[in-house]
Amino acid sequence: MRILVLSDIHGNLVALESVLAAAAGQYDAIWCLGDIVGYGPRPNECVALMREQATLCVMGNHDLAALGHPDIDVDNFNPHARQAVLWTRETLTEESHTFLAQLPDTPVLPSGQERLLVTHASPREPVWEYVLTPNVAWENFALFEQEICLVGHTHKPAIFRWRLCHEVNLEYADAVADNELVAEVSLLQAPSSGGVQLDTSAEQRVILNPGSVGQPRDNDARAAWAILDLEQMLWQCRRTPYAIELTQSQMQAAGLPRRLIDRLSYGW
Ligand code: ZN
């Protein structure tokens, strides 16, 4: 089973369509890690594509905000994001709203895949926490048992590896009682192309982030995505160029903030 893992599409239909075209024929299922909407100019079209094609989808913070959930205070978003949230709220069709409203806001155990856990942000805070550093990853590894946890939310591709070893090499490490093994967590370099062999076992687990389709923030403007090949245990990180200026002109026509338009050119 090869899973196309998409996250943080953010209403960027041009990027999403480019990724789907680039990935065609290379996957058996699509899983979406949330934030289908927010920031971008085509929220309903992106929701429709994921509703039709994704077999698993979780709730992101922007999805939740766009629903107008009473627990979400839009003042917690920065001014540009807030403006985009309010625009998205007004733009969402009833059909899109209904789909987003039923997305799970707790970590999902995909049926038939007991080695995997799927969530938008982190196991600890499924909608809100940013797993950007080994220490935050370390705290989260303690809260789930699966070998592989898929997350998005940061818009930065990442591989955090937890492993048992015989020496303490890292700051984020802890001795495991009753033998001399030690657990440590490290952030591995996520290659912009090619695969990483996932050596998962009782001694190794990973938190994997494919990056963002619609608004990358790792200084690479190309759409980010990944394929998780569960037979080969391979995590393939990919980047796809798309017509950024087309998304930008759609955003301009929608009256979305200039800063959100400009950032797509740079990937930050
Ligand atoms: Zn996001």
Describe the structure concisely for a colleague:
With 268 residues, this protein is of the alpha/beta class. The protein is built from eight helices and twelve strands. Helix 2 (43-53) crosses helix 5 and helix 7 runs antiparallel to helix 8 (258-266).
Structure description:
With 268 residues, the protein is an alpha/beta fold. It has one domain: Purple Acid Phosphatase, chain A, domain 2 (4-Layer Sandwich), CATH 3.60.21. The protein is built from eight helices and twelve strands. The strands form two sheets. It has a six-stranded mixed β-sheet with strand order 3-2-1-11-12-9. A six-stranded mixed β-sheet has the order 4-5-10-6-8-7, covered by helices on one side. Strand 1, helix 1 and strand 2 form a beta-alpha-beta unit. 45% of the residues are buried. The structure holds zinc ion.
Q: What is the assigned CATH homologous superfamily?
A: Metallo-dependent phosphatases
Structural class: alpha/beta
Instruction: Identify the overall geometry.
Output: globular
Along the chain, the helix and strand elements come as: EHEHEHHHEHEEEEEEEEHH
Largest sheet: 6 strands, mixed
Q: Give every kind of bound small molecule, once each.
A: zinc ion
Instruction: Please bin the fraction of helical residues.
Output: 25-40%
Termini, distance in Å? 32 Å
Low-confidence stretches: none
Q: Briefly, what CATH class?
A: Alpha Beta
The number of domains is 1
Named CATH architecture: 4-Layer Sandwich
